[in-house]
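S., here's the first fold you wanted:
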Amino acid sequence: MENKFFLTNAVEKIKRGESSFFLDPKEFLYVSSLLRKQKVPYQVFKPYPMAEKVLIYRDSLPDMELLEITSKEPLFHRFILGTFFAHQILPYFYSDIMIRDSAYVVALKPISKYMQDQILTIGKIPVCWHTKDLSVIENFEPKYETIFLHVPSLRFDAILAKLLKVSRKQVLEKIESHEVFLNYEECMKRETLLKVGDVFSIRGYGKYIFRDIVYQNKKGNMDLEIHQYR
């Protein structure tokens, strides 16, 4: 884990009665395990029950806002995430991106103000920002598009090539360009074998979850069920 110093610093902040930033599942496990070892009491804030990114805090939550993003055209998770990346907004400062009829994100201040003032388009789509009460998303459930893939193996590069409809050489180029992430960490090994439950993302394409092996024949070819965040 490349950000151990950052996470250790988060532990020290929590011990002082402050809070962490938003943590992905791996970061949460690392921080919470250190807190338990040091017998530091803590609480967990989840924007909604199935949220992947959470905050750990000791006494009180930091200042944050639920922001609704509206537009005249549909907004997709990958385009919003790409826009945040283009504005160099670190993922620690905001929650999971939630898509309903509108899009929602919980952002820490002053990042929430920056988003509202500076992000006027998602891709080429003009957007408006609205501050909402957190109760709006308390029962939110993520939406996915289900994709079925027929692949010769569970090698990550083979699955990505089939999923993105590109060559394995192009997949390697994306890996070498630091555009591929597996279970919230940069993936540098194309021969990695995926496991059911793995979460992966490709910059510009979105975020996916490997849900199941639907069928496998005697030759080892498989039909996989993959969910893409909408």
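And the second, which I think is the more interesting of the pair:
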Amino acid sequence: MDFTLSPRIEDFRARIARFVEAEILPVEADPDAYDAHGNIRHARLEPLRAKARAEGLWCLQLKPETGGQGLGKVGMAVCYEEMNRSIFGPVVFNAAAPDDGNMMVLEQAATPAQQARWLRPIVEGRVRSAFAMTEPHPGSGSDPAMMLTRATRMGGTYRITGRKWFITGAAEAQHFILMARTSDDERHGLTAFLFDRDQPGWAIERRIGIMGPEEHGGHCELSFDGLEILADNVLIGEGAGLKLTQMRLGPARLTHCMRWLGLSKRCVEIARAYAAQRSGFGEILANRESIRMMLGHLAMQIEIGRLLVMKAAWELDRGGYARKEISMAKVHVANLLHKAADTAIQINGARGYSTDTPLEWIYRYARQARLVDGADEVHMMVLDRSLAAEDRGFWQWPSN
């Protein structure tokens, strides 16, 4: 693959970098800009979103006919990394989870009528969305085959019963994509549905407290006791839910990595700035061999992560599935983010542990990275499965 950026992608990257520096970082530095859950307050978010939209930096991941710029996955990798120099960046550009993944899968899988009803309001920033798949034990986690939530066909509607939990953004979502079981068929037993917050027959039981800062809408436990969904609001047909989850979760894992690289680089940035001006025992920290080795190692690990992400993005753009590439990127970058935050805090000392920098925010946020969208161990099993199937071909370069 060619790592040279097109002039168009470089233009978007540079404009995003300027926007983050001039518009978002000053807001991030203001303690009054945070809500009770450690995210940007809506009153401070909306003016930034309006500016991003006015500058043509809105929904870059979507096709022009949907309201985006059609950058492709490689362009997204470059731009998402730049957006997440700030912890507030992705949501400003309408590129934050879970809306980001929901918009992309609805653009790909929804009918024109479904897009007008369910996708357009998210693209325009008028509503938020959630993806409801994960269930409490003994239901599905990383394995969709364990799903217990049921959808029973009753003429032109489906009746939903069951429970979901850790549904990101649910407390503020208006539009939901729901995964439920419609049969016991191993490959074709799951179906994806669309429903609206205002429909009866379901409830948010609680907003689950977590260790780290939260996305808008938190992580919620939901119960379904007779929610009725019209057959018109089934995505890509009954029994195609497993295909839908693969379409939704693969790219979403990679976009997480794109954003986490931006946060990892921010950790290095904060650590280097402090080390350059802090002295102890007669020497500037940045001159100490131990500090230089810590930062050099992080720089190398970040670049490895960027290469893994870019290779997966390139493979997706050329029509591949990039399953093993995404799994490798997901494991590496998730662990990298935690290491970057930990190292930066160590270099900053007590300052890093305080709220004077975003390092403690990133550290608390980073621990979930090794769990969301598949735990490390699940992705390692995926890689071993590929290795067993491909043998030495696992490492084969693509050729024409």
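Why I say that: The beta strands are 128-132, 150-154, 157-168, 173-181, 190-196, 202-207, 219-230, 234-235, 279-280, 283-284. Residues 83 and 89 are 5 Å apart (CA to CA).

Talk tomorrow,
H.
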